[in-house]
Design a protein that fits this description.
The protein has 143 residues and is α+β, with helices and mostly antiparallel strands. It is 29% helix and 24% strand. Helix 2 (89-100) packs antiparallel against helix 5 (128-141). The radius of gyration is 16 Å and the shape is globular. It binds zinc ion (ZN). Zinc ion is lined by residues 25, 27-28, 30, 43, 45-46, 48.
Length: 143
């Protein structure tokens, strides 16, 4: 595995908009894969379906609550007194790459990039082992 992390300037919005999101079904609490091209959030386990085209005024993403159109994110776990979360596998692998890398390069003048906006506790080297364990827990939830 490479130990170099390259910040190519991805933003949190890139991960939200360009990839499928993993949500928790509000009816059966199992995993929903919300296709990023789809206007409906639907659960293959219980048949729950939500047409987001009818929710024009609703915020798609409420960061503080980790809620996406009333659905909790699937990838959430307690870590270092905080909560580690990701929208999807791509986002999780990005965080893993960042946290496990020894060398981090940053593109200048890209302050919006996710890497530059990660919270301090995620950048703290003393939290690294616990962060890696939390990422492993979330990876198991992908299976
Ligand atoms: Zn369901």
């Amino acid at each position: 595995m490479t130990s170099r992390f390259n910040d190519i300037g991805e933003t949190i919005d890139d991960f939200f908009q360009n990839n499928d999101k993993l949500l928790e079904c509000i009816r059966c609490q199992r995993m929903i894969v919300w296709k990023h091209t789809s206007c409906t959030i639907s659960c293959t386990h219980c048949g729950y379906i939500l047409d987001i085209g009818r929710l024009r005024n609703a915020a798609p993403w409420r960061r503080n609550e980790r809620i996406c159109y009333a659905h909790r994110l699937w990838l959430r776990t307690p870590c270092c007194g905080e909560e580690l979360w990701a929208f999807n596998k791509e986002h999780l692998l990005f965080l893993e790459s960042y946290i496990t890398s020894k060398l981090r390069s940053r593109k200048p003048n890209r302050n919006q990039s996710l890497a530059s906006r990660l919270p301090r506790w995620m950048k703290d080297a003393s939290n690294k082992n616990e962060l890696i364990k939390a990422i492993e827990r979330l990876k198991k939830k992908l299976l």
